[in-house]
Write a structure and sequence with these properties.
The protein has 365 residues and is mostly helical. The chain contains 16 helices and no strands.
């Protein structure tokens, strides 16, 4: 009975997705835009959001029949490819989501060490986060979704205030002019940004718990519009205030940009508010990946409930988070590598689009 009642709406699922993307967006998008498209990097964010709209249409085709169609992305794979190939694909997703889970745990801990508690033990932050994740993943998904809704409001207020305070330092010459020669770099930057927006696909492994998937187009399009605006503003404000040459050399460009705020004395330390919102966003993305991983494993082993795997995954997060890498620089290099971004894009965009094509050809979808 608990599983049947543990439902969320499509709107809540998309809010979870948007908030989960916030932490990697503030870290990756300004860097990717500045590195590949220089002053025109903010246009890459717009292009990535438009590509997300295409992905929304793909998933709308998967779940157009609502309750009469597949329950989640795992079922879609089984319809399109058959059970054997579907399990192989699920193993790939399980391995990749598990790695992402560990990466974001480590990013959270490294962020706390580098910005707030440089002399603390990294294990303390990892264990604390995993304790919270364990409680959330064993609890009701509806409660976690409502917490995400509240977090989104707080995050948007903080982002808006920070951007308004940074406007006096914004220089238009750092983002303009844009010419036709910038088209190819903008496209390359957009392709790198897809690696984050592709997390959209992963949330449909939670499809059993989403009550109105037939509203994917409406809710997904709103999420894409929201992310398009936020990512464009964040990328533009970073490049416009610091210039693309500085942004592409920074591990956390948006956080570094907030140090320029000098409009009012009480706002001189606004980065503290951003750090607080980042902690919440990190908690949401780590918990979301834990829930996604639990549901993939549930499908692979035909388990009755996904929550049985919450404790093993939390323990896996503690061990893996501590021993994953030896330094933050290795972590940054790995997450920004072409291999990582390619696999993310394949998992988020490539496989779902291919699945739709195969499913249509076989008249299964």
């Amino acid at each position: 009975m608990r599983t049947l009642n543990n439902k969320i709406s499509m709107r809540q699922a998309m809010i979870m997705y948007v908030v989960a993307c916030m932490s990697p967006i503030t870290r990756v998008f300004p860097f990717a835009g500045a590195k590949t498209a220089a002053h025109a990097g903010w246009l890459s964010a717009i292009l990535a959001a438009l590509a997300l709209l295409v992905l929304v249409r793909v998933f709308a085709a998967f779940f157009k029949r609502g309750a009469d169609g597949p329950a989640n992305l795992s079922d879609v794979f089984e319809l399109a490819y058959g059970s054997i190939v579907a399990k192989i694909i699920l193993v790939f997703y399980a391995a990749w989501v598990a790695l992402l889970f560990l990466i974001y745990i480590r990013f959270f801990a490294e962020k706390m060490l580098s910005t707030m508690f440089p002399s603390a033990n990294i294990g303390f932050f990892i264990v604390t986060m995993m304790a919270l994740v364990l409680v959330a993943s064993r609890g009701r998904l509806e409660a976690f979704a409502r917490f995400s809704e509240i977090s989104l409001i707080g995050f948007m207020v903080i982002i808006t205030v920070l951007v308004l305070c940074l406007l006096p330092a914004f220089e238009i010459r750092n983002v303009l002019p844009v010419t036709p020669s910038d088209a190819v770099p903008v496209v390359k930057g957009g392709l790198q940004m897809l690696s984050i927006l592709g997390y959209f696909s992963l949330f449909f492994f939670l499809g059993d718990h989403i009550s109105d998937k037939e509203h994917t187009v409406k809710r997904g399009s709103r999420a894409a519009l929201h992310l398009g605006i936020v990512t464009t503003v964040i990328t533009a404000i970073c490049i416009g205030t610091l210039s693309h040459r500085i942004v592409e050399r920074m591990p956390m460009p948006f956080f570094s940009t907030t140090k320029l705020i000098t409009v009012m004395q009480p706002l001189d330390r606004m980065e503290a508010f951003l750090l607080c919102s980042w902690v919440v966003a990190d908690f949401i993305i780590i918990t979301a990946f834990a829930l996604i991983l639990m549901n993939i494993i549930k499908k692979l082993f035909a388990a009755r409930e996904a929550r049985f795997f919450a404790t093993p995954i939390a323990f896996f997060g503690i061990v893996g988070g501590i021993f994953l890498v030896t330094s933050r620089f290795e972590l940054e290099a790995f997450t920004r590598s072409r291999v990582t971004m390619t696999i993310n894009s394949v998992a988020g965009f490539g496989i779902p689009i291919l699945t739709l094509i195969v499913g249509k050809l076989r008249s299964k979808i």
